[in-house]
Fold:
Amino acid sequence: MKMIRPVSDLRNNFADISKTVHETGQPVFLTKNGYGDMVVLSMEAYENLQFESEVYFKLREAELEAEMTGKRCSSKEVLKAMKEAASGIA
Structure:
């Protein structure tokens, strides 16, 4: 369930909000005058969102490239290319 609190709680109950975002890994949504204003996340949760966003973007790029070129690779080919790239051979 979403945690929604007034923005004044950020000043008045910072420690509680900090504890909540760190323990749950979930964001706290802050409102101002009854409307959404900000979202507070722990650094770990933010970094995870950034990572997931980057992975999604790269997968989407790969899907678009595959649609345009029609090129497909087997899992063995992909694994071989990854090993070569990791070892500096590629």
